[in-house]
Write a structure and sequence with these properties.
Helices cover about 45% and strands about 15% of the residues. The chain is built from nine helices and four strands; from the N terminus they run ααβααβαααβαβα. The chain is of the alpha+beta class.
C-alpha cells in the first residue's frame, strides 16, 4: 500500500517534467495568478537567503517580438506560450540583505543577534566576492528557482519547458534589463499544452551513482 501511494504521488508530481514546446495560444495567465506562482516559486532554497533570482515575465506581443530572434530553436514556445519567464541572477543581491534579514526579525523568524552576526560575517564576504563567484551563486539559485517554478506551475494546472538555448549576451539589453548587474540563467515557458509531449529515458541510479 505504501509503495503504491509513493508511486502514484511521484507520478502526479513528475507529469510536470514533460517538456512542452507547443502550447494553446489562446490561454493567458492573469497577472495576479502569475504573481502567486512566482511567490510560491521563491520558496526554493537560496544560499544565505540572498534570493538573487529575478523574473522578467514576457507575455505581450511586443515583448515576445523582442525575444523571438534570441531564442534560437525555441521559437514555437515563444509564439504559443502564455509567457516566457526569463530568470536572471542579480549580481548585487546583497543590497537586499538588510531588508531580507530585517524583515525576518520583524516577523519573529530570526533573533536580532543572529541577524547582526550574519551580516557582520557576510558583508565583507560579498564585498570581496569575484564576479565569477557571484555568477555561480546566481546560476545555482536561479536553477533551483527554475525547477521549483516548473513544479509550482504544474500544481496550478500549467505546463512548462525549461530553455537554455538563447542569446545570453543580448537578452538583458533586449528586455531593458541592466546586463552588467543581471546575469541570464534560463527561460521557462509556461502555458497550457497543445500536445502530450514526449517522455524521455533517464539513466538509472546504478549508472550514475557511486557509493563510498
Amino acid at each position: 500500500m505504501e509503495n503504491t501511494y509513493k508511486e502514484n504521488n511521484f507520478d502526479t508530481i513528475m507529469k510536470g517534467r514533460r517538456s512542452i514546446r507547443h502550447y494553446d495560444p489562446t490561454v493567458k495567465i492573469k497577472r495576479e495568478e502569475m504573481e502567486q506562482i512566482i511567490n510560491d516559486t521563491v520558496k526554493a532554497p537560496s544560499s544565505v537567503n540572498m534570493q538573487p533570482w529575478r523574473f522578467t515575465v514576457v507575455e505581450s506581443d511586443e515583448g515576445k517580438e523582442a525575444l523571438a530572434p534570441l531564442v534560437r530553436f525555441n521559437k514555437l514556445q515563444n509564439e504559443t506560450s502564455a509567457a516566457m519567464i526569463v530568470i536572471f541572477g542579480d549580481l548585487n543581491s546583497f543590497e537586499h540583505a538588510e531588508k531580507i534579514y530585517g524583515t525576518a526579525v520583524e516577523q519573529n523568524l530570526m533573533p536580532q543577534e543572529v541577524k547582526d552576526r550574519q551580516l557582520e560575517v557576510l558583508s565583507p564576504l560579498f564585498e570581496q566576492m569575484s564576479t565569477e563567484d557571484k555568477k555561480e551563486m546566481a546560476i545555482i539559485d536561479g536553477a533551483l528557482a527554475g525547477m521549483n517554478l516548473m513544479l509550482v506551475a504544474r500544481a496550478y494546472g500549467y505546463d512548462t519547458n525549461p530553455i537554455g538555448g538563447f542569446e545570453r549576451e543580448k537578452i538583458a539589453e533586449a528586455l531593458g534589463v541592466d546586463k552588467e548587474r543581471y546575469y541570464p540563467v534560463m527561460i521557462v515557458s509556461i502555458g497550457k499544452a497543445n500536445e502530450e509531449g514526449y517522455p524521455s529515458y533517464r539513466l538509472p541510479a546504478t549508472d550514475i551513482t557511486t557509493w563510498k
